[in-house]
Amino acid sequence: MSKQAVTFFWLRRDLRLEDNVGLFQALQSDFPVVPLFIFDDAILDSLPSDDARVGFIHDSLAKINTELQEIGSSLLIKKGKTAAVWQEIINEYDVKEVFYNKDYEPYAIARDTAIRELLETKNTIVNSCKDQVIFEALEITKADGLPYTVYTPYKNKWLEKYNSNAPVTEFDCAAHFSSFYKSSFEFLSLTQIGFVESTIKVKPHNLTKIANYHETRDFPAIDSTSYLSPHLRFGTVSVRKLVNWAAKKNAVFLSELIWREFFMQILYNFPKVMTHNFKPAYDGIEWRNNEEEFKRWCTGTTGYPMVDAGMRQLNETGYMHNRVRMVVASFLCKHLLIQWQWGEAYFAEKLLDYELSANVGNWQWAAGTGCDAAPYFRVFNPEIQLKKFDEKGIYIRQWIPEFDLGYGQPMVEHAMARDRAIATYKAGILK
């Protein structure tokens, strides 16, 4: 019996049916399109069974599946090692073409290269598309063709290129939905995947709060954030729609979207930053790496209210306000002299919007070891940050209910810690 000739569209970090480049291209193919998502054991095996991000992915896939069912199609969900899953698929179907959107992280690049090689041995045409960024890898470079390693000139070139073609094209996938393969695949439950519901949930995004973003973004007590970051991370929203919208509404918010692409191209062009300092001169710093002090930082019991409130917010919700992220990261690296990789790993475990490139980039910025870093002698004073950005203590009381009942003393005195950090950096920076 002959196999069904089909095209596959492989969803990964693009969990939506609208304005999806790879999907749009797949729907133009000559064969019915099977939408596929693989729960990758290589990723899942390292996660707790109640990981909120897996739950969010599953919920997002359920919404996609409901949309597909309305047009007589459905989502094929598989779980396992990616190569084994694809081998199973090509044994069952005559896979003429495969489309997917590019992912720029080192693991994803290696995975996609291996799958491409496997599929091409079966004469399958493999198409990778740019979807999660406006400009990728080496589309924004210096005059000599080398990648930018400083944000401001990168941003200026990015804006110049964007404005010359604005707004960027958005893709009408719905006009081609009739090309989906007619099916009623079983939709695997969260339990079948080996996970359970988490008490932590991803919040819906809200663009209406962005109009005054430049005025309110530094004040954690004001609930003025869009909650977009997890949605960008998993692609439940289109970056093209967001950028076109932000370009008209708020330049500061647009700058944050450009930071995201800056860090992505840094990771792509300099993959060593995933685990090593961008600036090798900082490799000689002698970190204290005290495990007990790290534990106090993790649990939000440092005695510095803004640091503790931020860590408790992270532990309880999976979110942390951006201004507070800078404060807690600086505290770990400078006050406690614990190397940034420890903090990066903890954020990777807890953040709902965890994005490798941004997490590494921001931690190295805080530590002073990155490509576009804060100078090593900049040491945030958590008490001054509290007075400037949460003067009435609204934010800290939300996350530290015992604050007014005799809050504990700081675990380290700021002036001493600052002097110690600067001396340690000076002594450790390699000439």
Automatic annotation (TrEMBL):
SUPFAM superfamilies in the cross-refs: Cryptochrome/photolyase FAD-binding domain, Cryptochrome/photolyase, N-terminal domain
PROSITE patterns tied to this protein: DNA_PHOTOLYASES_1_1, DNA_PHOTOLYASES_1_2, PHR_CRY_ALPHA_BETA
Keyword ATP-binding: no
Photolyase/cryptochrome alpha/beta domain span: 5-134
Binding site for FAD: 213, 225-229, 253, 256-263
Pfam family, one: DNA_photolyase
Cofactor: FAD; (6R)-5,10-methylene-5,6,7,8-tetrahydrofolate
GO molecular function, one term: DNA binding
Example GO BP: response to light stimulus
Keywords on record: Chromophore, FAD, Flavoprotein
Xref: InterPro entries: Crypto/Photolyase_FAD-like_sf (IPR036134), Crypto/Photolyase_N_sf (IPR036155), Cryptochr/Photolyase_FAD-bd (IPR005101), Cryptochrome/DNA_photolyase_1 (IPR002081), DNA_photolyase_1_CS_C (IPR018394), DNA_photolyase_N (IPR006050), Rossmann-like_a/b/a_fold (IPR014729)
Comment on bound cofactor: Binds 1 FAD per subunit.
Site (Electron transfer via tryptophanyl radical) residue list: 287, 340, 363
Keyword Flavoprotein: yes
Stated family: Belongs to the DNA photolyase family.
Protein name in the entry: Deoxyribodipyrimidine photo-lyase
Biological source species: Flavobacterium muglaense
